[in-house]
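Follow-up to my earlier ticket, as requested here are the two runs.
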Amino acid sequence: MSAMTRKIEVKWNKNVYEIEFDPTAGVDALLKMVQDETGVPKARAKLMPKTKKMWKGVLNEKYDLTSLPPPPLVALLMGSAELPVVPKTKTVFLEDLADAEIAEKGVGLPAGLVNLGNTCYMNSTLQCIRHAEGFREGLAAGASSPMANQFNKELSNSFSQVRSSLEAIPPVGFVSAMRQMFPQFAEQGRQGGYAQQDADEFLNSLMMAASQINSEDALKSAFGGTLPSKEELGGASNLVEATFGLKMEETLTCPEAGDSEPPVTKYDNATKLVCNIQGGHGSKIQISHVAAGIDLGLTGEVEKNSEVLGRNAVWTKKSRVDRLPPYLCLQMMRFFWKATPESADHQGVKCKIMKQINFSDCLDVYDFCSDRVKAILKVPRDKKAAEEEEKASKKLKGESTEDDKKEKDDVTMTDADEEMDDEMKAALAMSMGEEAAAAPTGFAGPGLPKDFMGTYELFGVVCHKGRDSSSGHYVAWVRSSAGSDLWYIFDDDEVSECKTEDVLKLNGGGDWHMSYLNFYKAKE
């Protein structure tokens, strides 16, 4: 290969072609070489990048090949090498589709969002939220109050544009509506230009605006065209509460007063769970996994008046989830406010906890639920456990079979064995009947899968890289589809691929990207 030529891997069908080309010869010459290698005519050939920092979308003649990044260069070719016989029903080829149709089919890398001045906090959050299908569909179908209508309309438009594009979208309309409705996001930095913002604060603002959508049409669209019953909604009255909302049961008890002071229970709404992060040298509490951090965030102490004691006392607070959503957000409490009384130009700074907090690609919330919800989730969980136990038992019996005689003895029962088996069946039926009679009624939450056991699958992560929330950089990591090992990294307008194992490394402990907002979907 001469100093002027480059090599590119072209993937077409199940084949990979290594083509050596001269960047100065232009796109037309490259496509001619692709045609010679694959047989795909230039007019039908569509080259899409599989390497970061290459061209956006489909390669066009205006692209300067001399600006290609360092190797490796990998591209995906779409196009047929032979013209088919015209069928009775016209066949539509992928290369004949418009860019919007190609994007909808998920061919190639999805589109990113252009950074419009320190808007990585917004871009990364939007890329995660737009993959919550129910929320996205409800947003498109519902109207809201005049104050939030423009914000929600532009938000929905941005989602639609990204889904139907092969190139990065500049969300100009949404950014304008966001800064108009929430002026804090128009704050200027000390060096001029827009200041960096907190992704969680943006998410809170987005949820506040979207909660103004409460029409039946929106809720129907969010749940596949069927409006959940009031019982299933469990008090959820708008799009956010129905798709991301948690109903929290908070119980206060006064240990000092003992049984003389009755517990106080109240209910409140939330849009996310919080993982409290504590630990480090000299700390009594060491949190290293999200489950422990969530549990810590659901307990605490408050000072409150005790009627029995006739004075203020310390009460123990315990919160549990009494309504589960189809989509769940978990915030890693990585930022905290540190006062700086010695500083002359500011009162404090927002610092970051770098501690490593491990998480998996599934989250079981059973232990964080109220007794009512636990009882509902317990039925399918026990059923699943019984099925697994039965499978294990059968497997063990199969492994213990040593010869045909033993197998025959196992299969052929005596009359006594049959009588005993009947007795056991009768006892089992009775116990199952009692269990069925005692089975709880009600719903754990709207839109949850049948026989939902309280397990959520991770589908999106907003990561932060840097030492504090007022600087650094946000990036989104989004699963391509439910159960898939393929993920997309959305670094503003740059999009690349990775695997689940790469996402699970975003657990902190250094200066690299670490998870800040985790998004989950109820698992089938």
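Run two:
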Amino acid sequence: MGEPEAGSEFAMRAAAAGPMADAQYILPNDIGVFSLDCREAFRLLSPTERLYAHHLSRAAWYGGLAVLLQTSPEAPYIYALLSRLFRAQDPDQLRQLALAEGLTEEEYQAFLVYAAGIYSNMGNYKSFGDTKFVPNLPKEKLERVILGSKAAGQHPEEVRSLWQTCGELMFSLEPRLRHLGLGKEGITTYFSGDCTMEDAKLAQDFLDSQNLSAYNTRLFKGVLEDGQPCYEVRLASVLGAEPALHSEMTSKLKSYEFRGSHFQVTRGDYAPILQKVVEHLEKAKAYAANSRQEQMLAQYIESFTQGSIEAHKRGSRFWIQDKGPIVESYIGFIESYRDPFGSRGEFEGFVAMVNKAMSAKFECLVASAEQLLKELPWPPAFEKDKFLTPDFTSLDVLTFSGSGIPAGINIPNYDDLRQTDGFKNVSLGNVLAVAYATQREKLTFLEEEDKDLYIRWKGPSFDVQVGLHELLGHGSGKLFVQDEKGAFNFDQETVINPETGEQIQSWYRSGETWDSKFSTIASSYEECRAESVGLYLCLNPQVLEIFGFKGADAEDVIYVNWLNMVRAGLLALEFYTPETSSWRQAHMQARFVILRVLLEAGEGLVTVTPTTGADGRPDARVRLDRDKIRPVGKPALERFLRKLQVLKSTGDVAGGRALYEGYAAVTDAPPECFLTLRDTVLLRKESRKLIVQPNTRLEGSEVQLLEYEASAAGLIRSFSERFPEDGPELEEVLIQLATADARFWRFPSENPSGQA
């Protein structure tokens, strides 16, 4: 048994908890819950395609459990506790017990919403904003439900032990635990609790020196007998320390001395979870549509077995070459948004089916891409030597595991592949449909006369923005690189920096990547560049015509797209933490930066005005002068975009930080007084929607699609039925893995002010 000891040190560092939490740290009972509709797309799959999709989905769902171990020390225990609870009694059955134990209907609903939030975010921190959320009911009442449950009756010691390990931490809002972060800034399990930003920088330099990627690693710090620091760089893999056949990884698994510190490269992180991933990828291979898919899966299997990012890159090459598959998927340690240093990838896996009507529009956009790239405001030398025509499809998601579901994706994230092999763009149509759902009464910070227009055109304008953002935003621009042999991929004599009028003074050296060089600002900076490209190119009539908009409709799409961006810039303040002067969400920081750029353009293009709402509480209004978008907004965006690209191409970290952090600074300087406006935004914020995903089940040789109602209880049921064969075993594995590393997050409790 891997149950944690009751009253362990791990649990005792959490502060005692009171009854209710600040609204910023709870999910409200009326949170929007929507089902992901993919029934028609799934119906159109052949039996073989369904089997392929099923096994890929199983691999994705198993791998997604690793996110619990990548989020917080207590997340795996909370997941295990909830899963045991709801396996023994479904939400309706548990409700009867809760009411008998003295909970009100509202308190029980608050518990269901909390549980749904844990499953949606794969942990107890919001995937969008990295803020902790806690149950919105008294701890003593939740304890009565848990200890009085059928699960506790069946396994009293196990359930009590789990509660004693994670109950305090579930509710604690001790300052350090309110947000994900590094060192004293927050909590993260990508690094042991005693790691600082300096340790993260040293480790990145070490990884670069050994040509190792950080994507599938975690960093654990210790101290040698002589008092010198030592670091374990642990790779995610099925194989651990056991002798293995020689692979490209085995020579890397050893001790190193680097700048006076000791580094040990090990592997085997998440091993039992990745074993399940590999088993289903093997099964999926039997139903692959072509040899590229087979080779892709073989390389993913090698990557997850050995801990090799190079194998994942090889798999990604085959994936890029697999054009227009009926069933599209990607899996691995992908996005680095939640690593406080910006280099380590969170596990995600998606499986989706092609939406042919929307994909046809995106294909037209791809066909126009080379021409549209010339419209971007930087010299040709700063664009890729050859535009590698990518796949761009609209997909209906069947499965998206990880901590959240995006609306669009441009992957892979490996710089070298993007420059030489290309990439794929994906717009997730049924996710966008959820995002479009807007209730007029919940539409904040807009003028009354803008609201109906906004509701009508938000969906179509978002299609345009996502298309441009992914294809021509993330898909554009060149990095200037000097390879290991000293050769440059640009002409040092003739290429001129348009910002300085001089030759290029800086570039990327062998082993350096965009993420490793720009680290903490890399994700947000790149999202800002892509969003800016979308705004800039949506002014092009040719683009709007591809999506079917002309004349007055086209002008409305432009207006709502720009209006949506400046409103989002104001909403972004929810994701800023004044106490640490830090941003918690890359896309929202990017949108705030764009708002600042457009405000700086002046001439009344954009105004943000504090007001008083009809309810007598503080409010605000965002106004955009549609007649000034082209004469004032476009030139401002042009200047900003050129600077962003030049600094990115040349690897000018100092210049990039100065520019980006300057615009991202949140102050109370007039006229906007953003710190004060942040209070208004928090007062009127709407929680991000929760999405219920279906399951697939193999019955004989046929795959069935299992759908669930759009409610917190439906979302919980979807997870209760997600692992029918081995749920208890998986929870045991998670508990064992979390307990084995718990010592890395035992630090003295800080001032427990602000408890839940």
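The only thing I checked on run two: The mean pLDDT is 92. Let me know what else you need.
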